[in-house]
């Protein structure tokens, strides 16, 4: 990457003032997104987690250098993006075209990628399906990326992600459209979201407008597609997953939340914390104090590391 003149101290005000809402056309409808910065700068594409709006990256963006063009998308079925057509399952592979459409829209040849949770899986598969397009990859608490399935647990995996979808009640729920989604009071929604994301009300305001919509009688419903609750990942065994992930050659920086690690989520994938297990010497990680959405609640714990990672042509992890 060329030598870039960046401003870290002024980024908080500068980038916030450049925020724009855009839409990208796709065959199934529109992809909604938010941009920050000058479009002539090198692009950084940000992909959120399951059902979470792209505005969840606002707290982190405020701490990022202002010499990049940041584009965060609402995945299909989330935020302000259109839902996929009825009958289609939400799998990671079916979400890849949304990334490809945004890249095509901006005519980008190369991008840097920041993903959170499910977004890290989508980013990983995109790097494999579209080789040489992603130059560096930031993974924010990549829980589903390290989900493993053994022969003994395949039955439960299949039931959760496929078989249950065809139960009568689930099928009706997943194909009836957003107008049938449950309605709640605003107070109830706020409490649920703050508890789920472990965030305060100030941080909640960043995502609330894209998370919910009026549903009549003073009540609200979530904008996400009910099918997103069972977004399907691949059934990799621990050994196969290690082979798959460590084959990557692009620089990767993973940020792990301490409380998630303490809960044993990564117990079957010790290679996630062993840089020597990655044969191309391209992987580094940092553990930060917090929960799964720590990039929203405490972005300052990781912002400098991410900024340095994006800025250096050879990541110094």
TrEMBL record:
<dbReference type="InterPro" id="IPR000073">
    <property type="entry name" value="AB_hydrolase_1"/>
</dbReference>
<dbReference type="Pfam" id="PF00561">
    <property type="entry name" value="Abhydrolase_1"/>
</dbReference>
<protein>
    <recommendedName>
        <fullName>AB hydrolase-1 domain-containing protein</fullName>
    </recommendedName>
</protein>
<dbReference type="InterPro" id="IPR050266">
    <property type="entry name" value="AB_hydrolase_sf"/>
</dbReference>
<dbReference type="GO" id="GO:0016020">
    <property type="term" value="C:membrane"/>
</dbReference>
<feature type="domain" description="AB hydrolase-1">
    <location>
        <begin position="42"/>
        <end position="163"/>
    </location>
</feature>
<dbReference type="InterPro" id="IPR029058">
    <property type="entry name" value="AB_hydrolase_fold"/>
</dbReference>
């Amino acid at each position: 990457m060329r030598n870039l003149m960046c401003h870290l101290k002024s980024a908080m005000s500068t980038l916030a003032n450049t925020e724009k809402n855009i839409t990208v056309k796709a065959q199934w409808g529109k992809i909604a997104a938010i941009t920050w910065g000058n479009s002539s700068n090198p692009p950084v594409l940000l992909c959120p987690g399951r059902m979470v709006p792209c505005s969840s990256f606002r707290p982190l963006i405020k701490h990022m250098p202002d010499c990049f063009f940041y584009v965060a998308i609402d995945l299909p079925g989330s935020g302000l993006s259109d839902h996929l057509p009825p009958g289609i399952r939400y799998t990671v592979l079916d979400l890849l075209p949304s990334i490809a459409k945004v890249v095509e829209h901006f005519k980008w040849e190369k991008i840097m990628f920041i993903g959170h949770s499910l977004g890290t899986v989508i980013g990983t598969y995109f790097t494999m399906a579209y080789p040489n397009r992603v130059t560096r990859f930031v993974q924010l608490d990549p829980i589903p990326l390290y989900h493993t399935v053994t022969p003994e647990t395949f039955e439960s995996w299949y039931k959760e992600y496929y078989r249950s979808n065809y139960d009568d009640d689930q099928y009706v729920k997943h194909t009836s459209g957003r107008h049938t989604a449950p309605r709640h009071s605003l107070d109830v929604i706020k409490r649920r979201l703050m508890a789920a994301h472990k965030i305060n009300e100030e941080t909640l305001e960043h995502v609330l407008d894209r998370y919910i919509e009026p549903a009549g009688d003073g009540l609200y419903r979530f904008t996400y597609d009910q099918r997103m609750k069972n977004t399907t990942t691949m059934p990799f065994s621990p050994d196969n997953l290690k082979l798959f992930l460590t084959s990557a050659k692009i620089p990767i920086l993973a940020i792990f939340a301490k409380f998630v690690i303490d809960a044993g989520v990564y117990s079957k994938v010790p290679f996630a914390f062993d840089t020597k297990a990655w044969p191309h010497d391209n992987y580094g990680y940092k553990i930060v104090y917090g929960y799964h959405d720590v990039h929203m609640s405490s972005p300052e714990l990781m912002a400098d590391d991410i900024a340095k990672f994006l800025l250096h042509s050879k990541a110094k992890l």
